[in-house]
Amino acid sequence: MFECQKEMGRKKNSKHHVSVIPNNDNFENPDSNMSVDNKPVEESSNLYDSMVEIQDSLPFNDDKTSADYYFDSYSHFGIHEEMLKDVVRTKTYQNVIYQNRFLFKDKIVLDVGAGTGILSLFCAKAGAKHVYAVECSHMADMAKKIIEANGFSTVITVLKGKIEEIDLPVPQVDIIISEWMGYFLLYENMLNTVLYARDKWLVEDGIVLPDKASLHLTAIEDADYKEDKIEFWNNVYGFDMSCIRKQAMLEPLVDTVDQNQIVTNCQLLKIMDISKMTPGDASFTAPFKLVAERNDYIHALVAYFDVSFTKCHKLMGFSTGPRSRATHWKQTVLYLEDVLTICEGEEIVGSMTIAQNKKNPRDVDIMLKYFLSGRHCSVSRTQYYKMR
Ligand code: SAH
Fold it and tell me: Where is the composition biased (Polar residues) (predicted)?
C-alpha cells in the first residue's frame, strides 16, 4: 500500500481538474445553518443511524477510506475513467494493436501498469498467445473481474503487485506494452518501471510499445492567466501574499494552451528511444532556440510531448501539443519571471535541464536558462521549477 504512494496522482493531480468544488451559487449565506435547499439541517441521530444501515447494506462496502485513495489514487475508478475517455490516448493504442495484428499473433505480452486491463484486452483480442497484466493498485481486482466478464481469463493473467516485486510465471516476454506517460512526460517516473521490466523480461528482439517519446518546447503570450494565477498573490483583499507567488512560480501549471497564444516555433528538446535508453537518459540538459513568428509579449514557455509506435505497418502515435486535439495531459506551462517583449525574427536561446528529484524520484526538477537580446528587451536569467 505504502509503495503505491509513489504512483499517486499522476493523472489526477491536474491543477485544473478539481471536480469536488461545490457550485457556490447555492451558498448565498455562508454563515447560515441551512442546507442547500434552504431547509434547516437536521441534527437528529436518526439520520446517522439510517446512514449506517444503508452503508452496511451496500454491496461494495470495501473498507476503503479517502486516506486509502489519497495514497493510491489509481485504486479509484475516476482516474481510469478520465484516461479511458481520453480518446486520443486510448484510440491510438487500440488502433496500434488492432491494425498491427501481425505483431501480436502468438506472442507473449506484458502489460506494465494494466489499470482496468484495457490494453491487455486489446492485445488478447488481437491474437496474443498470453498476456500478463500487472497492476499494483486495487484496480487489479477490478481488472480480474473485467477480464472474466469478457471471457478472456484463459488468455490474460492479472498479477496484483509492483512490477519490481512480482514473480512473472514466464522467463521472457515478446512484447511490453504500457501507458506510462505522466504530465510533462516524466512526472511520476513510471518510465523507470517500464525500463526495469524491459531489462528483466524482454526477449532479445522483443518490442516495447510505444517505443519513442519526445519532449518539445514553445513560448506563449499568456497575460491574462499569468495575472490570474501568479500576480494574484501580490494583493489578496488588500494583503501582500507574494510569498505564495514565489511558490506558484516554482510549480509548472498543467493546463491547455490555445494555439493562438503560440508566439515562436516549437523546438524539439529530446527524443527518447524506450527500447534502448537507460533510466539515466531521462535526466538531461537540452539547448533550445525559439524564434518569434510575430511581434508579441511572452509570459511563459510551454512543454509538451509526443509518443510514437514505430514498429507498426505505418508510423502511429499522438501529440499532446497545443496544435493537436486535447488530451488529459494538457500542456505544461512554465511562467517566466520577466515579461519578454519580442519582435518577429528575434530569438530566445537557452537550455533546459531536467532531473529526477533525489529525495522523491516521482518529482521532476527543472532548471531553465534563457537569454534574449532584442530591440525592446534584453534578459538573461535562470529559473528553477519543480513538478510535484
Ligand atoms: N494501462 C491502463 C492504465 C494506465 S495508468 C490504461 O491504459 O488505461 C498506469 C497504471 O500503472 C496505474 O493503474 C498504476 O497503478 C500502475 N502502476 C504504476 N506503477 C506501477 C508499478 N511499479 N507496478 C505495477 N503497476 C504500476
Answer: 21-35
CA–centroid distance, residue 209 to ligand 1 (Å):
14
Residue 194 is assigned to a structural domain of this protein: no
In this structure, are 251 and 172 located in the same domain?
no
CA distance 92 to 118: 13
| 179 CB within 6 A, ligand 1 | yes
Is 204 an annotated catalytic residue? Answer: no
In one-letter notation, the amino acid at residue 136 is C
The better pLDDT of the pair 49, 303 is held by: 303
pLDDT above 80 (res 28): no
- Whichever domain contains 129, its CATH number is 3.40.50.150
Which domain covers residue 104, as residue numbers? 66-179
The answer to whether residue 345 sits within a structural domain is yes
- Of the listed 7, 135, 179, 346, which one is catalytic? 179
Rg (CA), the chain: 24
Is 137 near ligand 1, meaning CB less than 6 Å away?
Answer: yes
Q: Are 135 and 158 in contact (CB under 8 A)?
A: yes
* Cβ(163) – ligand 1 distance below 6 Å: yes
Active-site residue flag, 3: no
Q: Do 295 and 344 touch, CB atoms closer than 8 A? A: yes
pLDDT of 232-264, one tens digit each? 999 999 999 999 999 999 999 999 999 999 999
Catalytic residue among 135, 188, 221, 346: 188
